[in-house]
Specification:
The complex is a heterodimer of chains A (189) and B (464). Chain A has 189 residues and is of the alpha/beta class. Chain A has 5 helices and 11 strands, in the order ααβαββββαββαββββ. Helix content of chain B is 53%, strand content 10%. The chains are: A alpha/beta (189), B alpha/beta (464). The structure holds iron/sulfur cluster.
Chain lengths: 189, 464
């Protein structure tokens, strides 16, 4: 007998007399007023920066973030119109730009797919995430129930990297980006 | 990990004598966590969330064989290599094989209590693999050669000055370097490790059976990096870590974050489905090792099986007035505090851990903090009773337990007794362990709620 068989048979034995517990249904998501307002508020509370912008102003924001920088690392889904700086490998880039799969208002979260990349989301000290306004879900439950296929890895980012492991003092940018900027893009893309 | 839980009373007294700073550091950190949790629970209908989470986990555990087989099937469909390990030896064999096949020289590790149980670091070192803990707190204690003292904050027993001294010796930073400067040094060392390691090792907070998704929570980004940059990722997952459905995460991720750190969600959550697809960044190989190591024995236990709901959030540690005095080291095993006191006797055998259930004032704060409503006070008494029955409890405890049992048996006596208690210092004669510690210190504060009220609630839970 292998380990698998032995473990499963011990479980079967352990559960023989145990009454089975029922699985509760998921709760109904509460109706939400304006997910975009809540999203921006939560981002700020999480220590990130959030902006609701049209394309022009989004490009302007990118221009500001890019000032004085030699280049940026880009996620695959980032449209050409947002690639203002020359592309650099993520290990060297001072800025990473990603295209989010979706966002969640109640937690102030952007969801980043491995199909967009991974290194650009994690290695540069500043991370700009672009997300379409139509992709902002009010709640995590609605987002997960709507998720049809999962990529190899999905990262939920809800703020800058942080740690209080050194003397209980909050330090930002410990391993991941110390600054997270989210641009919610108005209109359709 | 070699368990030394039997030595708890001695080790606790020794720590309090020799390292008085630990008490201060741990108390400060846990009170801070506890305050955050209370605030975060206050924002939601915490009772409803906890009850729902308990039910989902109870369902999972009472159908564990089904969900394990489902998870295994989904993982394989996703291209993940699935292994089963009954004990550390199995786990070592699996890891040794991966190391040999990929010629691993360097491994980066994301904080995982299970890998502490399994002794993953010593094994890797014996194979000549350089292994770096990448969680900042875990990195600090790795440099010091110490085990973690808290499930969530492994280095909470260290004061800033301890870390400044450590980095001064190791890296030549000034003795008054700021936390930012110290973190920057660690970031540099570990960034290099992420970029060069061939192997990433992690645990998991959850494994979703329906989709075969590994789920990991963190705040630093080191887990995302450890599971994204090296070409091989090995995840060790306790068999109790499963969840039935993907959407259950909408309950468990926020609830765990609120309980652990008072956050609405941890800064980073990784949902890992499998190896990178053609042309994608990410590991070529993902292995999941499903680990028993005492869990099926616990599942068999008609009372203690409930501890398998545990999410390892650390909230019960933060709430515990006894844990707060020493931190985790004197408990002598991976899991300390209230959860350690009820889990370790089950994982190690009561013979190896019988003093731990006595490391409590039965104040009930752990139960009220627990996001999955594990009846810790009740289980502490269960283990104490068993210890007495097996003649394991120290002599003084046998007397104390009998006295306590008498009081508990008579409702009137008990109510009187507990009323009296709430106005007074705790019954030091019933808690000889505490005596050594509380000398020259103020009395421990009893819980605002009497234990018999909590007990009633726990009994009612039982009847459902
Ligand atoms: S017993 Fe409850 S409070 Fe303690 S670590 Fe486990 S889940 Fe958290």
């Amino acid at each position: 007998m292998d380990a698998r068989t032995r473990i499963l048979s011990r479980i079967g034995h352990a559960l023989k007399e145990r009454p089975k517990a029922l699985l509760p249904e998921h709760p109904h998501a509460p109706p939400s007023a304006n997910p975009l307002d809540l999203f921006l508020k939560r981002l700020a509370e999480n220590g990130a920066e959030g902006h609701l912008l049209g394309e022009e102003r989004a490009r302007k924001l990118l221009g500001e973030l890019s000032q004085g920088l030699p280049g940026a690392a880009y996620g695959r889904g980032v449209p050409a119109s947002f690639r203002l700086l020359p592309e650099l490998p993520p290990e060297e880039a001072p800025l990473g730009v990603s295209w989010a799969l979706f966002a969640v208002a109640e937690t102030g979260t952007v969801a980043l797919s491995s199909e967009d990349g991974r290194r650009a989301q994690l290695l540069p000290p500043v991370h700009l995430v672009l997300v379409e306004e139509g992709r902002v879900y009010p709640s995590l439950l609605e987002a997960l129930l709507d998720l049809k296929a999962l990529p190899s890895a999905l990262g939920l980012h809800s703020g800058p990297s942080k740690s209080a492991d050194i003397g209980q003092v909050m330090v930002k940018g410990v391993h991941g980006p110390g600054r997270l900027v989210v641009a919610v893009l108005q209109g359709s893309w | 990990m070699q368990a030394k839980a039997k030595l708890y009373p001695k080790e606790a007294a020794k720590l309090l004598r020799e390292k008085p700073g630990v008490r201060e550091a741990v108390t400060g950190a846990t009170l801070h966590f506890e305050e955050g949790r209370k605030k975060a629970y206050g924002e939601i209908d915490a009772e409803a969330f906890r009850e729902r989470a308990k039910r989902v986990k109870d369902h999972l555990l009472t159908h564990l064989d089904h969900y394990l087989e489902l998870a295994e099937k989904r993982l394989r469909e996703n291209g993940v290599q699935v292994h089963w390990a009954e004990d550390p030896l199995d786990a070592h064999r699996i890891l040794r094989e991966v190391v040999a096949r990929h010629g691993v020289k360097r491994a980066v590790k994301a904080k995982s209590m299970l890998t502490e149980e399994l002794g993953v670091n010593p094994l890797l070192q014996s194979l000549g693999v350089e292994v770096l803990e990448t969680d900042l707190g875990e990195y600090l204690i790795q440099l010091l050669g110490e085990p973690p003292s808290h499930i969530v904050g492994p280095a909470i027993h260290l004061a800033l000055s301890d870390i400044q001294r450590l980095f001064h010796q190791r890296f030549g930073t000034p003795l008054n370097a700021s936390p930012e400067a110290l973190a920057a040094v660690a970031r540099k060392v570990l960034r290099d490790a992420f970029l060069t390691a061939e192997l990433g090792i992690s645990g998991a907070n959850f494994l979703v059976a329906e989709t075969g998704t590994l789920v990991l929570m963190e705040n630093e980004g080191n887990i995302r990096l450890s599971t994204s940059l090296p070409k091989v990722h090995v995840a060790f997952v306790g068999i109790e870590k499963l969840l039935p459905r993907l959407a259950d995460l909408a309950l468990f991720l926020p609830l765990t974050a609120r309980a652990a750190t008072g956050q609405r969600l941890s800064t980073y959550v990784s949902l890992i489905q499998g190896p990178a697809k053609e042309g994608e960044e990410g590991p070529e190989e993902v292995h999941v090792v499903l680990v028993d190591h005492g869990r099926t024995t616990l599942l068999h236990d008609p009372e203690a099986w409930e501890v398998l709901r545990c999410l390892r959030c650390g909230a019960c540690l933060n709430a515990c007035p006894v844990y707060r005095q020493t931190g985790g080291h004197p408990y002598g095993y991976v899991y300390s505090g209230p959860i350690g006191a009820v889990l370790d006797p089950g994982l190690l055998g009561l013979e190896e851990a019988y003093p731990l259930p006595y490391a409590s004032t039965l104040c009930g704060a752990c139960y009220e903090a627990c996001p999955v409503k594990i009846p810790i006070p009740k289980l502490l008494l269960t283990w104490r009773k068993r210890a007495v029955e097996r003649g394991l409890a120290p002599i003084w405890e046998r007397g104390a337990i009998q006295a306590l049992a008498k009081v508990m048996e008579s409702p009137t006596l008990y109510r009187l007794f507990s009323k009296a208690l709430r106005g007074l210092p705790l019954p030091q004669h019933l808690l000889p362990l505490l005596r050594a510690w509380t000398e020259g210190r103020g009395p421990l504060k009893p819980s605002p709620r009497p234990f018999h009220e909590l007990w009633k609630e726990l009994e009612a839970e039982d009847g459902r």
